[in-house]
Amino acid sequence: MTDFDYSLEPRRWLRLMPTIGVAMFAIVLAGFILDVNSARQAKKLSAAPSSVDSSPLGLSVTSESQQLEILWNHTSSAIHDAENATIRISDGDLSEAVPFDARQLQDGSLVYRPRTNDVSIRMEVHERDGRQVSESVRAVTTP
């Protein structure tokens, strides 16, 4: 049987304290670097223009329960400078033209109940200086 000096045991643990401290510092530093890189990546993504932001009208369509919500960017310069607009909807054999005055364009949306699962939408904006800006989208839903 060997005698073990238990009085030396606390000293052995004390020798590990610098190593534990360095390891904890490395973990905290790695977490900080990951947070900084994530923030940089998020900033890059938010600064990159999306297809809606780069289009003059930002025309888009979302499908809700048995209806389509037609949306446009009411803060775009084309809408701001608009005298009036027309949204043309082709839904199967049905074609509709919905006129908007400058004030109505500020709403930024129109709800439409489709007859078919394939709807084409074209927005034509007539600006005060005579220019015309238009965009088209197509909404295809599952039957």
Description:
The chain has 143 residues and is an alpha+beta fold. The chain folds into two domains: 6-47; 51-140, Sandwich (Immunoglobulin-like). Helix content is 36%, strand content 36%. The chain has four helices and seven strands, in the order ααββαββαβββ. The chain has helices spanning 9-47, 51-54, 77-80, 102-105; strands at 60-64, 67-71, 82-91, 94-101, 109-112, 118-127, 132-140. The strands form two sheets. It has a four-stranded antiparallel β-sheet with strand order 4-3-6-7. The protein is elongated, with a radius of gyration of 31 Å. The protein starts with 8 loop residues before the first helix and ends with a strand.
What's this entry about, in short?
With 143 residues, the chain is an alpha+beta fold. It has four helices and seven strands. It is elongated.
Q: How would you summarize the topology of this molecule?
A:
Blueprint: H1 9-47, H2 51-54, E1 60-64, E2 67-71, H3 77-80, E3 82-91, E4 94-101, H4 102-105, E5 109-112, E6 118-127, E7 132-140
